[in-house]
Amino acid sequence: MSEPRRSARNLFSHGQIMSTPHALKTISSDDIQQALTRHFAGDWGDCDPEVAAVNDLAVVEGTRLFSVYHDSHGQKFWIITEADRSATTVLRPEDY
């Protein structure tokens, strides 16, 4: 998708940004960009409170990050940043 960018608003390095083909076909680029901005800022979207707490700890400990968002049509999608921060992937749950 794009090359890694660092921003003062990013809480962590995110590596290469990727997407599954299905997600690219079914989620608008605006919805993806908004969700990525939220994910990188530590807004974990619609995930369970327990998952949000694990993500908060993962920012500090360097483990995997998982966020849940809904596109403008109400369809769920995920963003996962790998523990080693080499990649962040946008995908639909059925792509996992």
Please explain how this structure is put together.
With 96 residues, the protein is α+β, with helices and mostly antiparallel strands. The chain has one domain (16-95). Helices cover 32% and strands 22% of the residues. It has three helices and four strands. A four-stranded mixed sheet has the order 1-4-3-2. Strand 3 and strand 4 form a beta hairpin. The chain is globular, with a radius of gyration of 12 Å. Mean pLDDT is 92; it is low at 1-7.
**What is the share of helical residues?**
25-40%
Number of strands: 4
How many domains, as an integer?
1
Beta-strand content estimate: 15-25%
Unreliably modeled segments: 1-7
- Provide the succession of SSEs: EHHHEEE
Averaging pLDDT over every residue, what do you get? 92
Which secondary-structure class do the elements indicate?
alpha+beta
- What is the overall silhouette? globular
Rg to the nearest angstrom? 12 Å
Assembly status: single chain
Distance between the termini: 18 Å
What's the tally of helices? 3
Major sheet strand order: 1-4-3-2
Major β-sheet annotation: 4 strands, mixed
Helix-strand blueprint:
Elements: E1 16-19, H1 21-26, H2 29-40, H3 49-61, E2 65-70, E3 76-81, E4 87-91
Parallel strand pairs: 1-4
Antiparallel strand pairs: 2-3, 3-4
In short:
With about 100 residues, the protein is α+β, with helices and mostly antiparallel strands. It has helices at about 20-25, 30-40, 50-60, and strands at about 15-20, 65-70, 75-80, 85-90.
